[in-house]
Amino acid sequence: MKTMIMKRAFTSCFTSNTLLPFPRLGTNNITATTTITLLRLHSLSQSPTCPNPNHIPNHLTKLQQLLLEKSRVGFDKPDDALQVFDKMLRMKPLPRVIDFNQLLAALVKMKHYSVAVSVFSKMCSFTIPVNVVTYSTVINCCCHLKRVDYGFTLLAAIFKRGFVPNVVTYTTLLRGLISQDKFLEAELLFKNLLKHNQVEPNAVIFNTIINGQCKTGNTSQAMMLLRYMEKKGCMPDVVTYSTIIDSLSKDRLVDDALGLLAEMSDKGIRPNVITYSSLIQGLCNLNRWDDITQLLKDMDKHKISPDKHTYSILVDAHARDGKVKDAEYLIELMIQRGQNPNVVTYSALMDGYCLRGELDKAFAVLRTMRNKGILPNTQTYTILISGYCKKMKVDTAITLLEEMPLKGLTPTVETYGTILDGLFRTRRLDEAHKFYRKMLNQGLRLDIVICSTLLHGLCLNGLVVEAMSLFHKMESCGLVPHISIYNILIHGLFKDGKVDKARDLFHNLLLKGLQPDLKTYNIMIHGFCQEGLLEEAYKILLEMEEHNCLPNEVTYNTLIRGCFKNKMYHGGCVLIDEMVAHGFKADASTASMLFDLLQVKEQDPALLALQKKFMP
DNA sequence: CTAGGGTTAG
Predict the structure, then answer these.
(1) Spatial contact of A425 and A457, defined as CB atoms under 8 Å apart
(2) Quick check: A187 and A212 in contact, CB under 8 A?
(3) DSSP secondary-structure letter at A47?
(4) Is any atom of nucleic acid chain B found less than 7 Å from the CB of residue A611?
(5) What is the mean pLDDT of residues A151-172?
């Protein structure tokens, strides 16, 4: 009870009213035994095909063989495993713990987590001996079922029965916490485990925490933890390096990632296909094709074959870059090399066609998938729906949306977001409202992204009042508005002529400690310029410099046009000089405005000065 | 040697 963990465990124990038998989780449609399975099991257990029957002293070994075979090949369905389980229950003497554990492991392999949990529950009610391995396996199932709380209940049970949780048990729980976005709790638990010497940490537990740090955007801390484990004599392995390399690649710090690749190779840790795939993805995002070619050559040299992930990354990169033909070729290539493309691969290709607006081709990909027996999933549909919406073909998009449930697919907020965006952009407000209600009725929760879509759509259609009320609703729901949400609203308010409200909202975000971004400032400058409030616009320019948010080409052009529009020719001139000094150029719109001004005949000295300055 | 935990694709 000295440690955090113990406290935690026992708290969980008391908060959950059932310790044992284990609460049933989710649905498990375990049907009655089938004759066929029974017959197969029967023939297997008496099998003359056993390599050497004389070496099988009793039925336990046969069972072991069966289990080994099954955990290698996998049960065809959870029922099979349950058959084996029932058979095991009737054996005398009872099979060893290890055999039961193997059975659970086989279920985990099939991802039938809730079935595994109910088997465990039965084991408990039949008082079949279990050990810490059994518990760890079941904790893992709970974590996969997004019930880390039950995982901790089980940890309490481990203590209660006098078992000692080990590094695997804790690693499983840490991973469970991290997968539930509870990284801080995971980190705290980990620190306490080390502090109180509750575990002898190994690479896997470190890797789990490192992965959590990477997932929460703390790659530099992950790097520090890597150095720490080296210092403690726990050598990082290929997973440690791959995890950080992947994170660096996603942070666009591919050169640092390449540095780590060199480092691991120096230390004799061999990179694998995952390491290379992560790097290739990072390079793809930066369009560094030459480096990609080099890495593929390295892989070839080290006899590491690209797998379907590697190919899918490449297909996706080419497709997003508009090179759909190359993407098609890559798919051909991967098939030739025995890596079968799957739904992810084809969805990436389809996305490429959608981006190019080639919807017929995108739809053809869907047909190809069907011909190959690859089932399109929710994301496939969302990509296609988004493609149709972008082309303003919202009716086709709606048809696809309505087709989804017929295929057993459930639209996500993302799917609805795409449809709603399409409806707003085609000004079909009643339907937008209808689908919004439908989305909520399906139990889908609003998130920041869908809110941005809605706010943008409402503002686009001049419904700023409705947008503001949704904004307040968001805040009361505990959704923390991101700066881009403010950008949408401020822009909408200005467009609607509500300068005071726009100004208020801007000050509001400052009060909340939110940092305006370049877009915020540009929107403010644009809004003030439109209203002839040039001084306020200029003050924003000074403000952004103070806040280390340097103005860009858009900032200057907006302000310069604002000056000209308001006949402040001298100010415009000064700003043009300043802009040029910063290495920016007048954009098309400013240039054409300037060109028009050169034709104006007026006795304004500032205008004459301007004309003199810019007259060819 | 024998059961449980870790890294990659939209």
Answers:
(1) yes
(2) yes
(3) -
(4) no
(5) 96
